[in-house]
Amino acid sequence: MTGDMESPRRHERSTQEGHIWGSMRRTALILGSGLLLSVAFWNSVTWHLQRFWGASGYFWQTQWEKLLSTFEGNQWILFIIGTALVPGLCFWGFNGLLLVVDTTGKPNFISRYRIQLGKNEPVDPVKLRQSIPTVLLNQTMISLPMLLIFYPFFKWRGDPCCRELPTFHWFLVELALFTLVEEILFYYSHRLLHHPALYKKIHKKHHEWTAPIGVISIYAHPIEHVVSNMLPVLVGPLAMGSHLSSITVWLSLALIITTISHCGYHLPFLPSPEFHDYHHLKFNQCYGVLGVLDHLHGTDIMFKQTKAYERHVLLLGFTPLSESIPDPPKKTESPLGPSGLFPHK
User: Fold this and answer.
1) pTM score, two decimals?
2) How far is residue 263 from each of residues 99, 120, 217, 257, 277, measured CA to CA in Å?
3) In the structure, what pLDDT confidence band is assigned to residue 49 with cuts at 50, 70 and 90?
4) What is the DSSP letter of 105?
5) Nearest Cα to Cα of residue 229 among 262, 277, 278
6) Each residue's pLDDT tens digit, 271-291
7) Which value, to the nearest 10 degrees, does the dihedral of the CA atoms of residues 304, 123, 320, 91 take?
């Protein structure tokens, strides 16, 4: 009898271990493929820039030294430009384009890629106007002071404005570590904010948008913005003592990726937003960024049973996945009720 009970347990353990290794292999494949593509792309861009500018092999180093000489004695200004201004311009540049589609529904071909069909067509202008001030407040009154406070710690850990630039290959190592640190800190801080004691007072603000748009990615309570938006992306560079160039690229990428995750469109050749969009729709699933910890903790079980999970892939064509993998038709209930005998109330 005991042996009969132990057998299913062993099978369950082996299945869980298989899931863990499968998840780790997928993560390694994603990161490894991304790193290899980045190396090839960067080498190509650098070669073309060097030919265009007639620069030596130290093209980027030369440009960096010019910046250092311009801001000599005021390196903190250069730090703020690299950590706040440049990522902020990336954020608003990308979101400016998305807002045109969100508010006008044009161009029509982009609207075809909407994930939650029938939502935000167009976006509610009153709701949008009420949300934008919070986004600006978080950027100017939370992020900016926080970066100024962190600057001495970055200086202590390793001068972010040192003269020698990191090699691109070292930056790729840093990028992989930044991503893993963000996944861990964001997942657990995000789950904590879903605790009933914190959700209503803090995180519910972000979930006012059950069908999110890009600019809403940093629409959040100030406490959430510090704990779940800023700290997960700053701890990695701080722990590594990273160069400002690495921090600037990382923060810009992080803002672009979170915008894509919230944009509401599954666009061709961009990372899939289906995972986080489902979180906004259902609230209690898909807490992380990569999905690795959701897999390990079982917080993506419902998601995996949906068509959204089947659509959670990189779209390599131009046919919207909502058309090639449509949701099943919704069940319609009889007006007499489930049994057909009594009116449904």
Assistant:
1) 0.82
2) 9, 11, 8, 10, 8
3) low
4) -
5) 262
6) 999 999 999 999 899 999 999
7) -80
